[in-house]
Write a structure and sequence with these properties.
Number of helices: 9
Shape: globular
Radius of gyration: 20 Å
Distance between the termini: 45 Å
Strand content: 15-25%
Helix content: 25-40%
Number of strands: 10
Length: 251
């Protein structure tokens, strides 16, 4: 078997890859056959900085396009060839429920973060999270990841999302105009950027509770500088939320 030209790692003198690397094209073919397995991409990223750079530029991007092709094409439409916060951050958002740490974003609630097998993101649902003056913005939001029977906290739901072209969004402009403050210690679990508290900025739409099937006064969420959103809500009992839990088709 004839292998293509190998490339030496040029990012670190201490790299163990002294015999060079396969070409990007060869690695692309391998991961295409592996259906862009996220665990294997993450493992490859740990080998050296060369592989980490390749994963950030190519592999995570292809993973995102394979997992949610319509959503990715829409996020990149309008001439943009990149996604705010990088592809690795977006890939993590697609498959990881951040949970929360005691004393972190959501008071004293302690629920470990975890990977999820499959999550549906909806731009139609995202409209319910926007104030009327911001409804021209585009936001994809996931169905809530349910964590039931959390004692006094009841049934909790974690949701996450991402804005299209957040740097030009009306939500961002309004946050700046209202001089919204960043969280003093916590950062986005997906891209490590600073977080705005939408509850503190009084920018949580009343329609969000209906979309989530949650109590109206028990919703809180944050948006980071790169437009990633993460939030928590207290879910209504099933008998109370059945009439409002219909979900629109994903666009």
């Amino acid at each position: 078997m004839i292998l293509t030209k190998t490339y030496r790692c040029i990012h670190s003198a201490s790299c163990q890859c002294t015999k060079g690397h396969l070409s990007e094209e060869a690695i692309y073919i391998v991961f295409d056959r592996l259906n862009w397995n996220p665990k294997l991409i993450a493992t490859l990223s740990c080998v050296c900085k060369w592989f980490d750079d390749l994963a950030k530029r190519v592999l995570w991007k292809q993973f995102c396009h394979t997992r949610a092709p319509k959503m990715m094409n829409d996020l990149q439409s309008g001439g943009s060839h990149n996604v705010d916060g990088n592809w690795r951050a977006l890939a993590k958002l697609l498959i990881y429920c951040s949970g929360c740490q005691r004393g972190g974003l959501f008071n004293n609630i302690q629920i470990p973060g975890h990977f999820v097998h499959k999550t549906r993101f909806s731009k139609t649902s995202g409209k319910s999270f926007l104030l009327p003056q911001c409804r021209t913005d585009e936001l994809y939001v996931s169905d809530p990841c349910e964590h039931l029977n959390q004692g006094e906290d009841g049934d909790l739901g974690f949701f996450r999302g991402v804005f299209k072209a957040f740097s030009m969004s009306k939500v961002r402009k309004m946050l700046i105009k209202r001089m919204a403050e960043f969280h003093p210690t916590e950062v986005c679990p997906y891209c490590k950027a600073k977080l705005w508290n939408m509850l503190q900025a009084k920018m949580i739409s009343q329609r969000a509770s209906t979309r989530l099937g949650a109590y109206e006064d028990c919703i809180e969420y944050y948006v980071c500088l790169n437009g990633h959103m993460l939030g928590i809500c207290t879910l209504l009992p099933l008998s109370d939320s059945e009439e409002t839990s219909d979900v629109s088709e994903v666009e």
